[in-house]
Amino acid sequence: MALKNRGVVLKKDGKKREGRGLSREELKKAGISLKQALRIGLLVDMRRRTSHDKNVELLKQHLKKLNASKKRVSKSKKKTSPK
């Protein structure tokens, strides 16, 4: 399940539109850098300045799932060349 980071935004005229992504402040509170967020495919809205606790919690849960599903690849031993 991917993190749905495009929430619904209410416009002034009462219409709804799709959000543009997480704010930098939400990323900071969740303990992730901007580069890391972009690397894992999260959308970031550079114009947003608000931070919602609900988004931070969803982001933390998403990061836990990603870390749990990551397969740790053990480093193979380097072959030594015969001398």
Describe the structure.
The protein has 83 residues and is mainly α. It has a domain at 8-62. It has three helices and two strands, in the order ββααα. Strands 1-2 form a two-stranded antiparallel ribbon. Helix 1 crosses helix 3. The longest helix is centred in the last third of the chain and has 17 residues, at 53-69. The N and C termini lie far apart (52 Å).
Short description:
The protein has 83 residues and is mainly α. The chain has a domain at 8-62.
Record keyword descriptors for this entry.
mainly alpha, about 80 residues, about 35% helix, about 5% strand
Number of strands: 2
The termini sit apart by: 52 Å
Strand content: 5-15%
**What would the average pLDDT be, to the nearest integer?**
81
Order of strands in the sheet with most strands: 1-2
Shape: elongated
Order of helices and strands: EEHHH
What integer value in Å does the Rg equal?
19 Å
Instruction: Please identify the oligomeric state.
Output: single chain
Query: In DSSP terms, counting alpha (H) and pi (I) runs of 4 or more, how many helices?
Result: 3
Broad structural category = mainly alpha
Biggest β-sheet strands, sense, barrel: 2 strands, antiparallel
User: What percentage of residues falls in helices of 4 or more residues?
Assistant: 25-40%
Low-confidence stretches: none
